[in-house]
Recover the amino acids of this structure.
């Protein structure tokens, strides 16, 4: 599991509500990506049915909502230059 963040001023998620706790995302929040399934992509659905690897649809939640911990350990933090806006993909 990878932690993403902290959110910075101007990030697209600022002000949107976390689907887990319904509290808005704010500057300095750490996030986790939670997979929810294959979505509407026919190839991803077929792969899921065969227990094969597919790229799932994900939602962003607060790191603490996903793990119970306020801050992620250093070995769980994404390289920001590679993952800054993963939620906009």
């Amino acid at each position: 599991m990878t932690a993403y963040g902290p959110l910075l001023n101007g990030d697209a998620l600022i002000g949107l509500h976390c689907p887990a706790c319904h509290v808005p995302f704010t500057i300095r929040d750490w996030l986790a990506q939670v997979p929810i399934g294959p979505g509407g992509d026919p190839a991803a659905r077929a792969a899921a049915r065969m227990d094969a690897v597919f790229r799932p649809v994900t939602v962003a939640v607060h790191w603490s909502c996903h793990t119970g911990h306020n801050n992620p350990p250093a070995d769980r933090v994404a390289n920001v230059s590679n993952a800054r806006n993963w939620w906009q993909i």
Q: What stands out?
A: The chain has three helices and three strands.
